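2024-03-11 09:14:02 DEBUG pipeline.ingest accepted 1 chain
2024-03-11 09:14:02 DEBUG pipeline.ingest length=471
2024-03-11 09:14:03 DEBUG pipeline.predict start
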Amino acid sequence: MDELLTIGAAELARRIRTREISPVEVVEAHIRRIEQVNPHINAVVVPLFDQAREQAQQAANRVSGNGTDSLPPLFGVPVTIKDSFALAGAPYVIGSSYRRDVIADSDATAVRKLRDAGAIILGKTNVPDMCWLGETVNPVFGRTRNPWNPHHTVGGSSGGEGAVIGAGGSPLGLGSDLAGSLRLPAAACGTVSLMPTAGRVSTDGHIPTPPEPIADWNRVGPLARRIEDLALALEVLSETPVRNYRQIDLKERRVLVYIRNPLYPVTNTVADTVAMAAGALRSAGMEVVDHPRPPMLKTGFQFAGGLYSQGAIHKTRREVGGGQMFDYLLEARAHLRRQGRISLEVLFFHALIAAIGSVVNLFGFGKLEGLERSREAFLRAMTPDGVLLCPVFVTAPPRHGWTWRLPVSLPYTMMFNALGFPAVTVPVRWSRYGLPLAVQVVAAPGEDETALAVAAELERIFGGWRVADTL
C-alpha cells in the first residue's frame, strides 16, 4: 500500500507545503487507487483525472518556483465531490435518468471554496436518485458497494464519498446530510464525517433543495480520513470563524450516553461499541452520564409530516420524476418490463413517506412545532458545554436493501438534523466480520469544535480510520 494513501488531507497539505512530497505524486497515487478499486465499489462516477493531472502539475510548478508561505490551506490536495453539487463543466446527473445530459455551468459555493483553498478535484461520486434514499443506488450508475464487504451498504446519500474514502481513493470529500447522509456513509465505510451546525456552511448550488418545512435540516460538510482533516475542511467551508479544537479542554465536561430510546432499539454489538467509547472518554477525565429517559423525539414522523404538509411531498416527487410527479403504479409496471426510470428503493421510500405523512397529518402528529421543546430538553441534559454520545446505525452496517426495513431500523441521525445540532462520526472498532463500528458525537449548535475535540480523543484512543484493504 502506497504510504500516500494512508495520510490524511491535513498531513498531505503540510508535506506538500514543505516540499517533502509533490502534488503530482499525491494525485497520481490516488488516481491509481481509484482505478484499482472503482471496478469493485463503483464510487467515482464522473472521473476528472486529466484535468486533475494538469492542475497537479501546475501546483508542482508553483511550489518549485516560489516560496510556500502564501499557499492556500488545501494546496495540491486531491478531493472528491458528491454528485449533488454543481461543478462547472462536469456532468450533474445526481443519479437521475432524467438528468443524463445535464452539465453544470457554475460551481456550488462549497465547491468554489475548496477550489479557492487549492484542492484538486479527482471526480464526482455516486448518490441515489436525487439523493432521496439512505442507500446509494440509481438507474444511471447502479449500486455503490462497501469497500469492507461488497454485500453491505455504503449508506446514503453521500455513499460514493464514504466508499472511495474508505477504500483509500480520496483523502477528503464533500457531502451533504438531510437525514443522515454524511453520517451513514462514514459509519458504514469506516471514515470520519462532520455534519456542521445548521447554516454554518452554504448549501447554494446543491440539488435537491429540501422543501420549506425542512429546509434547515440539510447541511453541507466533509468526509475524511482524520478528524484534523474535518477541522481543516471546516475552516475552508465555514461562513463563521472556526476555533482550534485542539485548545478545547475536555476535562469534566459532560458526555450524555444516548442509546435507550425505545423508538430506536440497538443491537448488543452497537451498545457495546458506544459503551467502549464512553469508557474511554471517562478515562480521559470527562463526566459520563447514562440518560435513562431521553427526550422522546419522533423525528421520523416529523420528517414525514414536514414533507407531506403544504404539498411538499409533491415537490420531491417532481424532482425524482424529472420535473413531473411520477406515478407509483406506472413506474412499478415499467420495472416489470425492465424500463423503470426510478430505482425501486426510492419508489418504496417515497411511498413510505407519503403514507406516514398522510396518517400523521390526519391525526395531528408529527408537527414540527414540538422541536423547540425537544431541543431544550436535550440541551438541559447535555449541559451547555457537554456532548451527546450515541450510535449511527442501530446495527452493524447492514446488507444492501436495508432501507426496505427502514420503519423498524431507523438510525440515530435524523433527530439531530431536526434540532440543528452538529455531529461528528468516528470509527471505534471493527466487528468480527470486518465491518466498521462507529459512534456519533453530537454537540450544541455552534459547538462543532467541541464535537471535533471529543471525536479526536476517541480517534487517538482507538486509532480511527484505516484503509479498507479487502479489495
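2024-03-11 09:14:41 DEBUG pipeline.report Residues 300-362 form one domain.
2024-03-11 09:14:41 DEBUG pipeline.predict end
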